[in-house]
Amino acid sequence: MLSDLIVIDMTRALAGPHAGMMLADLGARVIKFEPPQGDDTRGWGPPFVGSEGDPVSTYFLSCNRNKESVVGDLKTDAGRELFEHLVCRADVLLENFRTGVLDRLGFSVERLHELNPRLVITSITGFGHDGPEGHRPGYDQILQGEAGLMSITGDEHGEPTKAGVPIADLLAGLNATVGTLGALYERVNTNRGKVVRVSLLSSIVGVHAFQGTRWTVAGEEPGRIGNHHPSISPYGLFRAADSLVQVAVGSQSQWRNFAEFIGVDPDSPDFADNPARVGNRELLTEAVNLAFSRMSADAVLAEMDRIGVPAGRVRSLSEVYDWEQVHSQGLVIDVQHPTLGPISLPGPAIRFDGHDGAGARGQHIAPPALGAHTEEVWRWLKGEDDRSCAAARTEARRPESAGRLTDAP
After folding, report:
1. In this predicted structure, what is the pLDDT of residue 295?
2. 9, 25, 91, 169: which one is catalytic?
3. What beta strand segments (E) does 126-243 contain?
4. Is 169 a catalytic residue?
5. 344 near 334, Cβ under 8 Å?
6. What is the reported pTM?
């Protein structure tokens, strides 16, 4: 789908690599430009897999499929030469350095666009590239706290709690992907690359949703209420006889069916409409738990399905990856790793009609070993089909080249 695009992924950790992986899943050629020591996540673990002498981080495997790896040190002449050749050839550059780092290395936005005016530069930072605290470094959990997410996550009487995955990083990666695609679409008409700026801070604040407007519009400070919805009831985690189940009663018609099932008068003043049910959540939760306690989780879920009320169990990850529904959606993929052999990875979330199996790119590739493609990429860059920086600038001046996503063969 994006097979005519070339992406340089200079990012480390998770937000940027996740964006690069999404573009790679869509078919772009993504070249991971790594320093000699490699992406930080190559050393993040346990768990590590493989031989003791050549351990592979499962963290790294989670966010680098479908990429090539080249090694280059921007503090050396050879590294800068490799990078400049790639910039001249690329459509997109992904970077997540702290503000000013690339400038000090000699590759400011102005310099990058001098080399290739059509280059889309996507920059990911912790707190934003400017503003009074734009200089601060930011890892996921720091931003989950700073951006308010932890203040609304966790038990009412417990400590603020982070999400179980690095959600600030993952959202930033999604936003970077969307912004990059938007800039590429604009480039069709302008023939010029734009700078796309995304931060972990903006990515969390951008998904505050109704919790944000509780404060900005109603002036109400949201708090933690554990596993129940702050604005809908009953909507949350309940106890069946043998395990936990979740139920979401999101409409008045669902409520009438559900109330009959748990033996509650749907028109009782305490529960007649959603605001009343939210105001009497504890009382209603007791009634639900009492009704569910007489039944197994399987029986509860079967009855919820019968009466049309959304419900589900709480699965472990091992159960999720054994689940037939997950496999039916292409959410587990098999790849051949250069040292580990055949391995399974979580698959891409997006499917397209007409693209079966490996999705939009045709075939998935295992995350690369450090520098595995350096020589191959150098041969490609220096081959007969190489496009020099001068040629890139000339192409950008041609009006007839507008209207195309890329000039890459």
Report:
1. 96
2. 169
3. 195-199, 235-239
4. yes
5. yes
6. 0.91
